[in-house]
Write a structure and sequence with these properties.
This protein is α+β, with helices and mostly antiparallel strands and 706 residues long. Helices cover 46% and strands 16% of the residues. The strands form seven sheets. The chain has an eight-stranded mixed sheet with strand order 10-9-11-12-24-23-20-17. It has a four-stranded mixed sheet with strand order 4-3-5-6, with helices on one face. Strand 9, helix 18 (426-434) and strand 10 (438-442) form a beta-alpha-beta unit. The longest helix is centred in the C-terminal third of the chain and has 32 residues, at 674-705.
Length: 706
């Protein structure tokens, strides 16, 4: 086998075809790499691979057309067929030579993602998974081309037939869609020869064992059929007497059946066994929040997917598979809206789009429209609004819907108004919706008490002080075992009634704004505090993963908890010991500690729990009025929004927050100078392909002269 491998490898480079294949492959990979990654700054190498794989339909037939057909035409195959070596070794030697040629441009391309690391972050797992998909697709294409070449002695016929087979395999999803949009027996049979779908599965960032097994098994089948094609010429056998290792229709049928069954068995395995999520944002994996919640489900829930199963959204489909694997109480059913167009009217009067979900329990139902599963951003270029998908919120929407349909009651959070309080943005309100918390405002002046059904009361950065009457109502609510979230900013006027609320928990505020002198605890300027985050229920998902941004904060002074104290404290956001409170910051011209400035550390987020005669009163205080705004939250990847959601979740008695943030769908664009784009473009598009072609031409020309 080794001798045949060396012979074929030499012949491909001596005849210029090998270098031509390598040069053409490098040229088109380099061209799309230049356009997508260098020019546009996309950090996804999968865009390049998806664009160039179509070339296999043209390059592979040219590469493989002569490997068997030419020997058969010139009768030189008789020398090999009569040699003391098995047919399988002959075929394997030739195939490995072709695979080596494919491996060269693949190996060179493996350097391209590493180059991009200099210019920004890159999902390397996705990049190299795309290269693996490229190599596997090329490997099965070569095996098919080798099979076709063994069937004829005409190189032209081998090339044309190879192109047709590869074209059909690439276009099979579209061809099946033309035959039937809902799927039937014929499309399922044709789908067995679908090269494109498993390829795309790997481009999406999932190392899908089913796709790998499909490519490897189809490659093995094509090589086996090649051996059988050669055996038919090598031996003369009767239909009744089959010789071991000789051509046999029964063996061919058995090999095809084994390949089909193997792929069917792998396809039935749980997705958690056969899929490895390599995306940077773990797009196809469920978070610990969801896993903890789903494991505690003890009632049956059905998730109806309004789409034919063959046309499902692949990302959403994988997410739903993970839910089914986690709990025996979750069942996913697909409803074809073409065959049953009025199914959704049982649960909603609104129109719903394809791939929408309806989550149903014995208590209630909730519709998740397909448009809410993906996060879309809109940009205005001066002429038109352009939209782009920037995130995936499938897990967040499904987990929220599960909690909604299984909850006994939907808790209500009240936000005070009438004192110039900040209004929550749409993003923060959306977090409450996903947490299945109703949001209402209350003017304490117009009611005698805080509503009894209040799960908690939020006082969000009031611009003015509370009235004495409003203060007393809040304290009365706390004395009933109430829960208050108090968000404060630096006051422009005295606020004695807010101070009294703090004093209810023996808390007070340091005079002035906190200045952080430890460079690890601020961003750009010492007023932009990045407090130390302590582990706990309020910081779930944040601790160890994100910063919290607390600009222009006051310091909360927390007394030490005594063993016999009726109040216990948990300060989960703290400044460093190098911080201090600048009292006269409005007139300060430079940073620097002045006499009388309070010395840190301070708390910027604290929970105070007071033991009552019956039950407990709870207050959480945050000391930055800008903390729970979109601008502050975006500075730290949405961590502030997560903190707010965790706080509300804790107050409405959710064991774990059911508001899972949307996962970012895109990595930041790469930043390359024009000089770097030009230099790298010349190397990848011109220099490397030209080197391959020149090398091949020199070798070919020297042999012509001998």
């Amino acid at each position: 086998m080794l001798a045949i491998y060396k012979k074929e490898l030499r012949s491909y480079f001596h005849s210029f075809i090998g270098c031509l294949f390598i040069g053409v492959s490098l040229f088109f990979i380099g061209l799309y790499y230049f356009v997508y990654c260098l020019l546009y700054g996309y950090p996804y190498f999968s865009y390049v691979i998806n664009s160039v794989v179509v070339l296999f339909m043209l390059t592979v037939p040219v590469l493989t057309m002569r490997i068997m057909a030419e020997e058969r035409r010139s009768k030189t195959d008789q020398l090999i067929l009569t040699a003391p070596v098995s047919v399988s070794r002959i075929v394997l030697g030739k195939y490995l030579a072709l695979l080596t040629i494919l491996a060269i441009p693949t190996a060179v391309s493996a350097l391209y993602p590493l180059i991009l690391l200099r210019f920004g972050s890159l999902p390397l797992g996705e990049c190299y998974l795309a290269l693996l998909a490229f190599f596997l697709y090329g490997a099965v294409s070569i095996a098919i081309g080798l099979l076709v070449s063994s069937l004829t002695e005409s190189q032209v016929i081998a090339a044309v037939l190879g192109f047709v087979l590869l074209f059909v395999g690439y276009m099979m999803p579209s061809l099946c869609g033309l035959i039937s949009s809902t799927g039937n027996v014929l499309t399922h049979i044709l789908g067995l020869y679908d090269l494109y779908t498993p390829f795309v599965m790997m481009l999406n960032g999932t190392l899908d064992i089913g796709s790998v097994v499909y490519f490897l098994s189809l490659t093995a089948l094509a090589l086996f059929l090649t051996c059988q094609s050669i055996q038919k010429r090598r031996y003369s056998v009767s239909v009744k007497a089959l010789r071991a290792g000789a051509y046999s229709m029964g063996m061919i049928v058995a090999a095809v059946a084994v390949t089909v069954v193997l792929n069917m068995v792998v396809g039935q395995l749980p997705g958690s066994w056969t899929s490895l999520d390599l995306t940077g944002s773990k797009l196809y994996s469920l978070t610990d929040q969801t896993k903890e919640y789903v494991k505690n489900i003890h009632e049956d829930v059905t998730v109806y997917v309004l789409v034919n199963e063959d046309n499902e959204d692949t990302v959403l489909g994988q997410t739903l598979d993970r839910y089914e694997e986690l709990s025996e109480h979750i069942h996913v059913q697909y409803v074809d809206p073409i065959q049953n167009p009025r199914f959704h009217t049982q649960y909603t009067s609104a129109n719903v789009s394809a791939n929408s979900l309806i989550v149903v329990s014995d208590r209630r139902s909730k519709v998740i429209d397909a448009n809410d599963i993906y996060v879309t951003s809109y940009d205005y270029d001066g002429y038109n609004y352009n939209s782009s998908v920037t995130g995936y919120d499938g897990e967040g929407q499904i987990t929220s819907a599960l909690d909604y349909v299984l909850s006994d009651d939907i808790p209500v959070v009240y936000m005070t108004e009438g004192h110039g309080e900040q209004i929550l943005s749409a993003a923060f309100k959306g977090s409450l919706d996903k947490e299945n918390v109703e949001y209402e405002t209350v003017n304490l002046m117009s009611c005698e008490t805080v509503p009894e059904k209040a799960a908690c009361l939020v006082i969000n950065a009031p611009a003015s002080d509370l009235s004495e009457d409003d203060r007393d109502k809040v304290i009365a609510y706390l004395n009933r075992g109430g829960k208050v979230i108090l968000i404060l900013g630096y006051p422009e006027v005295p606020t004695p009634n807010l101070d009294t609320l703090l004093a209810y928990m023996d808390l007070s505020m340091a005079d002035g704004l906190v200045v952080e002198e430890d460079q690890n605890n601020y961003y750009q300027i010492p007023f932009y505090i990045l407090p130390t985050v302590a582990a706990g229920s309020y910081t779930t998902g944040i601790y160890g993963n994100y910063y919290v941004f607390a600009p222009y904060s006051q310091g909360i002074i927390v007394p030490k908890t005594q063993e016999d104290s009726e109040i216990r404290y948990n300060d989960f956001l703290r400044t460093s010991s190098s911080s201090y409170a600048m009292g006269d910051f409005e007139n300060a011209t430079e940073y620097g500690r002045q006499e009388g400035d309070a010395q840190g550390p301070f708390s910027l987020g604290v929970e105070a729990v007071k033991t009552l005669e019956e039950g407990e009163a709870t207050m959480v205080v945050y000391s930055s009025d800008q903390m729970f705004t979109d601008s502050a939250s975006l500075m730290v990847g949405g961590a502030n929004q997560m903190l707010f959601t965790n706080t509300v979740s804790r107050f409405v008695d959710h064991e774990t927050s059911v508001s899972v943030p949307a996962k970012e769908y895109e990595v930041s664009t790469l930043l390359l100078s024009q000089k770097n784009v030009l230099i790298l473009g010349l190397i990848t598009v011109i220099l490397l392909p030209l080197c391959s072609l020149v090398t091949g031409f020199v070798i070919w020309f020297r042999r012509r002269r001998k």
